[in-house]
Amino acid sequence: MNNPPILDPKVRAALVAYLLPWADDELILGHRDSEWTGFAPILEEDLAFSSIAQDELGHAALIYHLVADLTGENPDHLALRRPANAYRHAPLVERPNGDWAYTIARHYLYDLADSARLEVLSGSSYGPLAGIARKMAREEHYHRLHGEMWWERLAAGTNESRERLAAAARAVTPLVGAVLGGTDGQEILVAERILPGIPAGLAADWRDLARPFLIALDPELGRLPDEAPEPRELRPASADFLALHAEMTMVSASGLGERW
Amino acid sequence: MSGAGSGQYEVFHRKNMTEPMVHAGSVEAADPRMALLLAKETFFRREHPIGIWVTRRDDLHPLAETDVLEPGTDKSYRAIEAYTGIAKKREAVEEGLA
C-alpha cells in the first residue's frame, strides 16, 4: 500500500489513534488463540483454531501496515517492540484463555463486535482502510460460522458445557463493548466519513448481533444495557498482559537481529 | 464426543464445476455442520475448492465381497493397452495373407 492518500495532520493523528487499539486487539486475541495450538479439544479443531489465530495475526499485520504507511514507523516494531504499557488493546482480549467455553465465548462475542466494525469500515472514505476491512470481513465470515457452531454445540451439549458457556458469557459480555469505544479525535474521522459510524451506533449493532445468542443461553444475559461504550484510554499494563507481552516479544527482543 | 450425529465424516471436494467430487479424507465431528466447518481448515488451508461435501462414514456401504472385484480370467482385451500397435499387427497379418 504505497502512496496512501494525503491526509491533514489532525485527521492522520485521529486515524492512527483509531487504528492502533484495533490492531492491538487483533494481535493480542490472535496470540491468545494461538496458545491453543496443540491443546484444542480435537485434532480437527486444533487446525481450525490455529488457522483462525493466524487470520487474526494477519489482520493485525494489515492494520499495523496501514499505521506504518501513515507514520513512517516499522510495522514489526509497532507489533512487537513497544513497551507493554504502550499497547492499547481492550481488557477483553488479554484475559487468559481459561477453558474452551471461555475461549469460544470471548472470541465469538469479539467477532460479532468486529463484524459490526468491519461492516461500517468497508464503506470508509479512506480507500486503504475500506480495502483491508473488506479483506478481513471475508475471513471473519468463516470465524463467525465457526464460533456460532461451537456456541450452539456447547449450549446444546451437556449441562456442564451449557453452564460453562453461560459462566463464560457472563464474564466476558460486559467487556466486549469497550472494543468499540471512542478514540482521540474520532469525531474528525466521523466528519470525514473515514469512520462512517459512531461508537454508540456500533455498540448497538453489536448488541443486535449478540442478543439472540445470549438470550438463548440465559434471558438475563440478553438484557444488554443501551449505552455508548467507554472511550478507549491508555491504562496501566495488567499482570496478565505483562506475562503475555514478555512471551510475545521474547524472540523479537532477543537481539538475534532483523535479517532472517 | 457423543450424540446421535457424532463420529467420523468422509470429506469430498471439487476444484471446479467440470471436475467430479473427490475424496479428501475424514474428520471427526459431532454433526454434519461441524464436519463441514472443520473440514475446511483440515484439508483446504492451501487448496481452495469451490465446494465441499461431507457424509457420515456410517452412511457409506462398502461391498463386503471384494473378491468379486478381481477378474477371474484374462480381461486384458477390455483395456486400452491391449490395443497398442494394432495398426502394425494388422499390416503384418495382411502381408502374411498376400
What does this molecule look like?
The complex is a heterodimer of chains A (260) and B (98). Chain A has one domain (9-223): Up-down Bundle (Ferritin), CATH 1.20.1260. Chain A is built from eleven helices and no strands. Chain A has helices spanning 9-34, 43-71, 75-80, 91-94, 100-121, 127-156, 159-176, 186-191, 199-217, 239-248, 250-253. Chain B has a single domain (7-97), classed as Phenylacetic acid degradation B (Ubiquitin-like (UB roll), Roll), CATH 3.10.20.520. Chain B has a three-stranded antiparallel β-sheet with strand order 2-1-3, with helices on one face. The interface between A and B is medium-sized, with 14 and 16 residues.
Distance between the termini of chain A: 23 Å
Low-confidence stretches of chain B: none
The total count of helices of chain B amounts to 2
| Annotated CATH architecture of chain B | Roll
**Outline of chain B:** elongated
Quick summary:
Chain A is built from 11 helices and no strands.
Write out key terms for the chains shown.
heterodimer; A: 260 residues; mainly alpha; Ferritin; 11 helices; 0% strand; globular; B: 98 residues; alpha+beta; Ubiquitin-like (UB roll); 3-stranded antiparallel β-sheet; 2 helices; 3 strands
Secondary-structure blueprint:
The complex is a heterodimer of chains A (about 260) and B (about 100).
Chain A: H1 9-34, H2 43-71, H3 75-80, H4 91-94, H5 100-121, H6 127-156, H7 159-176, H8 186-191, H9 199-217, H10 239-248, H11 250-253
Chain B: E1 7-14, E2 22-29, H1 32-43, E3 51-56, H2 86-97
